[in-house]
## 1
Amino acid sequence: MKPRVYLTRRLPDAVMERLAAQTDLAFHDGAAPVAPEELHAALKDREALIPTVSDRIDAAVLAHAPVLRVIANFGVGYNNIDVAAATKRGIQVTNTPDVLTAATADVAFGLLLATARRFGEGERMVREGRWHGWDPLQLLGADIAGATLGLIGFGRIGQAVAHRARAFDMRVLYWNRTRLEPGIELELGVDYRERDELLAESDFVSLHVAYTPETHHLIDASALARMKPSAILVNTARGSIVDEAALVEALKSGRISAAGLDVFEREPHIHAGLYPLSNCVLLPHLGSATIGTRTRMGMLALDNLLAACAGKRPPNLVNPDALAAAPHR
Ligand code: 8YV
């Protein structure tokens, strides 16, 4: 029997074709996220759910899902899911690591370049007919080569950003909960710093930690105050790692020089104070947005889901305790 699956958004065609062939599929086909009532009703007989970053899957939602066995998140970050509530019910949660590492690192490095070299301001100047010719002092930015990049969080994506930075002749510092072996640091060409030291020493700070209660507002007013006035902040991880209101103040007052943001605290709502600021580049959560990456993410979510429904351990299980938990249904 094919597993009964509910998918909250349409995914790339190749994924939809495989889902249709290998599962009993129902999905929400709108341009906006599925409404709670629709999700609740859909989950009443579904064994598997594929949600995205825009779907909050908490205990209240799970209460409507009496036969759910697996939540195969479409994304590496799974802060949209109450994993503890799922584990309690014996529901497995999986994610999609690795397949989006390069695409997301590209966007982080792209934001670093775009902010340093003022691409957004230049583009707006040209499109709005305000460019009246070359000028030796026009839109002068910051040098990349020789500058210091500080990475907060040094998992797969952080390391991929370090790799790109080394190719651009940057010096790379990192902070991570667990420090790497010195041999690996040497191999990757990176140096460890405590977080406050990293903030003070870096010309660019890029965030690559998962969003958890511990990383909520990790970059707050006091962290921003430690950064150089010339420093640039890049965030492709999760919006709530940064206190957006404090960031607006820091950008307005010149406490830091610029920011490149792909993620926001209350997406798609963006702090009103960011819109008028020319020293920030704002992207609509594009980290993994390539056709190849989104296809690989969907295929991996499906691999995870099929494994769980077949009674096998999914390759990217994030809550192994769910296997032991007596299903509370
Ligand atoms: C996705 C992401 O676009 O994987 C993640 O954690 O933030 C993005 O790559 C998003 O999660 C899709 O659900």
## 2
Amino acid sequence: MSLSVKHLLGIRDLQRSDIETIFQTADSFKDVLQRPIKKVPTLRDTTIVNVFFENSTRTRISFELAEKRLGADVVNFSASGSSVSKGETLIDTVNNILAMKVDMVVMRHSATGAPHFLSKHIDVPILNAGDGINEHPTQALLDAFSIREKLGSVEGKKVAIVGDIMHSRVALSNIYCLKKLGAEVTVVGPPTLIPKYLANALGVNVTYNLREALEWCDVANVLRIQLERLKMPLFSSLREYSLVYGINKQLLDSLHKEVVIMHPGPINRGVELSSDAADSKQSIILQQVENGVAVRMAALYLLSGKTPNITVTGN
Ligand code: CP
């Protein structure tokens, strides 16, 4: 099994068969992660560097766990405290790391296109862990994998993506991924946070009415308001946003069916999701996080070019 791409830069570049291959491989790794010894030697002779130029909790820990559970040697790099603060360029930074015989790079960067730029200058596989407002491919893969796990398949399912679509790399990667897998997608949020091109360019439905979207969908993937990326006020206040687009348990209970609630994290509790909705039985937020490790193991393994070896040792 292999992928049609050398790097995982975005879902836009993947074939549906690539996504299905990642899911089948993640199924096997998820089995491994249920065992007492949650480790395989698949990437035992592989060194992976996690290069994070932007903050992260889930993605960074999830990649590191995935790498360690595959038996890889792992090096972590943060821009803060590095020679980036002395003016070193991205290519110099990464080439210096690669000179120490690193085999794969996982990178998060606040600049859209940073991993694509890097892929033109280095030979080893790069996995994009989020680039600016562009893509966050492993998040979309783990989201779709979680829908498949919860509802049996993604094909034909109705998914509402709620909130700050404009600034969200999670939204764009999710739209590409869900559409490739045959889901119907509606984006919902304030008009100022939904790009005008979206419906025509990406084939999604657009609505500004949260209740209408929730009555329609099987799954609501609720996004964080990306306050750090707002260059100007695009809604009057967080309080008003929460009143119009926030999801709470009372709203969920008033619908005529049960909607699965997802969120990529970190959650602004009380803004896009109330605690009683985020922590409800309808929420699969922590299952998303759990699935992230298996999905990232699959992506790392498939891009590594190693021969199949998903057997557990010492168990
Ligand atoms: N979902 C996600 O990317 O979270 P982090 O920013 O914590 O990695």
